[in-house]
Specification:
Strand order of the largest sheet: 1-5-4-3-2
CATH topology of the largest domain: Alpha-Beta Plaits
Shape: elongated
Organism: Kitasatospora cheerisanensis KCTC 2395
InterPro entries: CdaR-like_regulators, PucR_C-HTH_dom, PucR_C-HTH_sf, PucR_dom
CATH architecture of the largest domain: 2-Layer Sandwich
Structural class: alpha/beta
Number of strands: 15
Protein name: PucR family transcriptional regulator
Helix content: 40-55%
Radius of gyration: 39 Å
Length: 521
């Protein structure tokens, strides 16, 4: 702790007397400044003990009162007036003004030089800094040993809480509580979920400070709480919260910073290991999608404890343009892995940058924790689209992947967050015919018929539509048109001549029918 006015006054060799503001002597003294200016505030930063002989103060009560107000407004913590030179005693008007503003006023006897006061405060400040450095060094050693020990991050949290004389909590990248010390603090740490979630949406590192009776803290608690995000590449990898009865001192801030650095290094080191695991997992996923399930099972048994078994789904997510969407895609992968890790659920994840931008593929249990976490994460972030396959056996993952890709394409075209394959299969193909490429194809295919209808007799387009809608039944189609069936046969031969295609070809009939539907208003 820095020296206070009280500790300065208690220094017996200085012989200082408190004339006013005795109730405010616990204010910390950051420096001692001597000035004979009527207004020294431009040269002050706040927290100073100001010493003066009062040469330019005069004896005017109004002037002395204005002088005191200027000092108090500038953050001066105390005023010392040296007697014996310009003032034989401290003016009563100065005492009254200091008492009114609650500014401690000290009488400095003539025998006490100002430099003696400066030396006393400087020595106390140096001692404080030495203690802070020593304590910080000891804490760093202790926390480092804890981080390298068996319990790792949990041990760091436990040691940090003991060092601060309060409590500490560690949260993972999704905001879920992963470690807390002491155990009784779990309830308090749990109430910080909203604050952690706010930090989760900001680039790391970032922090927030909460005081007692803040909105996220129970009214029975009066802790001073600091929440810090952990991460070195803007994306939070975790969060650290500490709570103490009093404000964190500079020394305690050093200890907290040491813990933040160690936890960040630990999480980043774990991230590198996870990245290696992700590459192996991505390779396994591609093996499964290629139908090499048996080989993938043998490899995964030693690396991941096995593959997801039972009914699975393939999920494919894509990000829109911009770095924020790409970051959201990375967070989606993190959420999927964290959800699986919490309940021990197996999954495979593959990240890739393709021609259409970054993609994320996830193979997870149908309606499991990972599946639900992905759906929730996509709803939270704009710029993401997700395609979900139908439930399938692991051996049919390749087919499921194709389903997820088709569902993703529908989601992207329709501006939707999530599309399930069941929705694609249960819907109609006709809404897709409004795509510009399909419309252009339809116009080009039917142009010879439309040109004919504008310049010659006979409605070939209407005749073709009627004939196709009746599945090639001549009598039924001719009746719909109100013409003889021989007339209709002539028109269909003319259609074949203009298009250069045979209507006996099933593919040709299908393309013509889709072209006609695409051209409808």
């Amino acid at each position: 702790m820095p020296p206070t006015l009280a500790s300065v006054v208690r220094t017996s060799t200085l012989h200082l007397t408190v004339l006013a503001g005795a109730d405010h002597l616990e204010r910390p003294v950051r420096w001692v400044h001597t000035s004979e200016l009527d207004d020294p505030t431009p040269f002050l930063e706040g927290g100073e003990l100001l010493l003066t002989t009062g040469i330019k103060l005069g004896k005017s009560a109004a002037g002395l009162q204005a002088y005191v107000h200027r000092l108090a407004d500038a953050g001066v913590v105390g005023l010392g007036l040296g007697v014996g030179l310009s003032h034989t005693e401290v003016p009563q008007a100065l005492v009254d003004a200091a008492a009114q503003r609650g500014l401690p006023l000290l009488r400095v006897p003539e025998a006490t030089p100002f430099i003696a006061i400066s030396k006393a405060v400087s020595a106390a400040l140096a001692a404080e800094q030495y203690e802070a450095v020593t304590t910080s060094f000891e804490a760093q050693e202790e926390l480092t040993r804890a981080a390298l020990g068996k319990d790792g991050t949990t041990a760091v949290v436990r040691r940090l809480a003991a060092r601060l004389g309060g409590w500490a909590a560690l949260y993972d990248g999704s905001g879920a509580l992963s470690a807390v010390a002491p155990d009784w603090a779990a309830r308090r740490a749990g109430r910080l979920a909203a604050e952690v979630d706010r930090l989760r949406r900001r680039p790391a590192p970032s922090s927030a400070a909460l005081q007692g009776r803040a909105g996220t803290i129970d009214t029975a608690d009066e802790d001073y709480v600091v929440v810090q995000s952990l991460g070195a590449d803007r994306r939070p990898r975790g969060f650290l919260a500490v709570g103490t009865e009093d404000r964190i001192t500079p020394t305690e801030r050093y200890v907290l910073n040491a813990a933040v650095a160690l936890l960040t290094l630990t999480l980043e080191r774990s991230r590198e290991l996870r990245q290696a695991e992700e590459k192996m997992g991505a390779a396994l996923l591609r093996m499964v999608l290629a139908g090499e399930v048996g080989t993938a099972r043998q490899v995964a048994a030693g690396l991941f404890g096995g593959l997801p078994e039972g009914t699975v789904r393939v999920l494919v997510a894509a990000a829109g343009p911009g770095p924020e969407a790409a970051e959201a895609l990375g967070e989606l992968g993190d959420r999927a892995e964290q959800a699986g890790g919490k309940v021990g659920e197996k999954l495979l994840v593959a990240r890739e940058d393709g021609a259409h931008g970054p993609r994320l593929m996830v193979l997870a249990l149908d309606n499991g924790s990972v599946h639900r976490a992905c759906l929730g994460a996509v709803e939270e972030h704009e710029g993401l689209a997700l395609g979900v396959s139908a439930p399938a056996a692991l051996e049919d993952a390749g087919t499921a992947h194709a389903q997820a890709e088709r569902a993703l394409a529908v989601a992207q075209r329709g501006g939707r967050r999530t599309v399930d394959h069941e929705e694609v299969g249960a819907g109609s193909l006709l809404p897709l015919l409004g795509e510009e490429a399909v419309t252009a194809f339809a116009e080009g295919l039917l142009r010879p018929l439309r040109d004919h209808d504008r310049t010659a007799r006979g409605d070939l387009v209407a005749s073709l539509r009627a004939w196709l809608s009746r599945h090639g039944q001549w009598d039924a189609a001719a009746a719909d048109l109100g013409v003889h069936r021989h007339t209709l046969r002539y028109r269909m031969r003319r259609v074949e001549e203009l298009l250069g295609r045979s209507l006996d070809d099933t593919d040709v009939r299908m393309e013509l029918w889709l072209a006609l539907r695409a051209g409808e208003d």
